[in-house]
Design goal:
Layout lengths: L19 E3 H8 L3 H9 L8 E3 H15 L4 H14 L10 E6 L2 E6 L2 E3 L12 H8 L9 H25 L4 H14 L4 H13 L3 H14 L4 H14 L2 H14 L4 H13 L3 H14 L4 H22 L13
Antiparallel strand pairs: 1-2, 3-4, 4-5
Helix pairs in contact: 6-7, 7-8, 8-9, 8-10, 9-10, 10-11, 11-12, 12-13, 13-14
């Protein structure tokens, strides 16, 4: 959400969160077969899915290792349940945590402190060692070399993508963040998500032309990408190009009708253009999708102002008009 009143800070542009892998690609990377994935799903170790994120690969790799060490599925599931419940609360500890088998038990270590799964706040290990192991994927046979190389590039691109996100979250210099996303794009030129995030870094640095170039490239790769349309709309909005901003916000909504932030920004555009009914329509749509945030309070306030205007106008008496009498 970008076009807000000056007394309210504008939130950051949205970002993509990484690529995806098919079940077949996951099996190839982890050197397992489809039956093992199904067994893990049946045992409650992983949810049923057709696509997996880069972060999922690291979790699946750890499950494969623990099962290879004959760790009981119940103990693995117990650790995973605790970990998944805490990932959002303690993201800063992500790199300091390891999960491993100790005798018959599955233990978790945070720094130098060892814990059992039920003992406290726990996270999963996302260290670079696991990533590097994934990058050392050997082709299983000669004809599979090209496929393995393609997967290797995809993993490495996702590594740099995740690195870019991490650098952003830790407030690293723009140069380092840009370098990470550019490496992701170099390894996977069709990574629309990396291009969008790179565009957003340039946007935040007020490098408008560089931001526009990346957003447009993302849309060349995927014309049906709501986030790219939305962020491009924000860019044009910031530059005062209202017509282009409106076009891309509406495209984002066409592709994703429940895109709350697009409704929010269109409400503000319509309100600035004195299109009261259009603004009210988008405020109401936004509040149906997001009725409890700080931004919802602003939307509710603006909608209330517009509703008050329409009520006053509706109550006004029409002026008296003289009418000719047709009687002769």
């Amino acid at each position: 959400m970008l076009r807000v009143n000056s007394e309210h800070p504008a939130p950051e542009l949205e970002r993509e969160t990484g690529g995806s892998y098919t079940r077949r690609e996951v099996c190839r990377l982890l050197k397992i077969d489809g039956r093992q994935l199904k067994n893990w799903e049946r045992q409650g170790l992983i949810p049923v899915a057709s696509q997996y994120r880069f972060s999922d690969l690291l979790i699946l790799k750890r499950i494969a290792r623990l099962r290879g060490e004959r760790a009981h599925p119940r103990l693995i599931r117990q650790a995973l349940d605790v970990i998944r419940g805490q990932l959002d609360h303690l993201p800063d500890l992500r790199g300091d945590v390891q999960v491993y088998k100790d005798g018959r038990r599955v233990r978790i270590q945070i720094g130098k402190q060892k814990m059992e799964p039920a003992s406290g706040q726990l996270l999963f290990d996302f260290d670079e060692t696991e990533i590097n192991k994934l990058l050392q994927l050997p082709p299983t046979q000669k004809s599979g070399g090209a496929i393995a190389e393609k997967l290797r590039h995809k993993i490495e691109a996702d590594y740099w993508f995740e690195k870019g996100l991490e650098l952003e979250q830790t407030g690293a210099p723009y140069e380092q963040i840009i370098e990470a996303y550019e490496k992701a794009v170099e390894l996977d030129p069709r990574s629309a998500g990396a291009l969008v995030n790179l565009g957003t870094v340039f946007f935040n640095g007020h490098a408008w032309a560089d931001a526009e170039k990346r957003y447009l490239r993302a849309l060349e790769i995927d014309p049906h990408y709501p986030l790219a349309h939305f962020n491009l709309g924000n860019l044009y909005d910031e530059q005062g190009d209202v017509a282009s901003a409106r076009h891309h916000y509406e495209e984002a909504l066409r592709l994703h009708p429940n895109y709350a932030d697009a409704h929010y920004n269109l409400a503000l555009l319509n309100q600035a253009a004195h299109d009261v009914l259009g603004a009210m329509r988008h405020w109401r749509a936004y509040l149906k999708l997001d009725g409890s945030s700080t931004w919802a309070n602003i939307a509710r306030r603006e909608l209330g102002k517009l509703e008050a205007i329409t009520v006053v106008q509706g109550n006004r008496r029409a002026p008296l008009q003289l009418v000719n009498n047709d009687r002769g």
